[in-house]
Every structure is written in C-alpha cells, then in structure tokens.
Amino acid sequence: MDELTHYPSFVSFSDDKGNSREDLVRDTNNRSIKFETPTLRPGDKIQMRVKASDPKGRKMEISFRRGIMGRKGEPPAQVVSDGEEAVFDWTITAKEVGQGRTFSIYLRTLGTEYHRMNVSDQILSIDYAVDPPEGY
Hints:
Number of domains: 1
Shape: elongated
Number of helices: 0
Strand content: over 45%
Radius of gyration: 15 Å
Order of helices and strands: EEEEEEEEE
CATH architecture: Sandwich
Number of strands: 9
Largest sheet: 5 strands, mixed
Strand order of the largest sheet: 3-9-8-5-6
Structural class: mainly beta
Helix content: under 10%
CATH superfamily: Immunoglobulins
C-alpha cells in the first residue's frame, strides 16, 4: 500500500532558533529530529512551525505535546488545510531541563475513521538540549 495516497504527512519543520527540516514528506514513519544548538534554558521562548499535506485535501489537526504523553497547559491543537502551517509558541520551564528534552507534534486528519497509526497519522518528535538556569 502506498501510504502517501491515503494519509497526510508532515512536509516541513522550523523554529525561530534557526533549525529546520524540509525533507519530511517521504518519511512516513515516526520521525525524530535532534537539534544540538542552540542550547535552551528555562525562560527561553521558542516558536515552532510545522507544515503538513494531505493527498485528499482534507482538514488536519496538528497538536503539540511536551514529551510523549503530554501535560496540562499545552497550547490547543490547530486545524489546518493542506499546505498550511501550524505555529506553536512555548516557554521553556525548569521541568524540561535535560539533554534530550522531547517535544512531540501529532498530525491527524479530521472527518475520517482511518488513520495510519490508529488514532493519529504521524508523530514528529523534536529533541532539544535544555541546560539548567544560569548560575546553577
């Protein structure tokens, strides 16, 4: 089965720290991207942009989660059309200090009962290094 004819895929990811990936459409598996620089610290703000495409032109929901399961207080999911960007702003907290802090972005089509991965169509995991606060 050609997954690209049935399910949506992430097309690109970028952040306001200069990191980006444009090669996502052909990688339909869960995708993990690790950024070494810049190192973030609690209090830093980061803006992440992700673009997705659906071969059937359906509306898609893109949601942002801290870690795999998510936590309270995350930004609401965004509904986008084919080729539109979802933009998430996040302020790094002390709870996110660690060398491989994962932020997950979930993609799923709306109005269909079938999804590539049961309840979603693709997950993009973004890893950043988050150092302790200055003076630690």
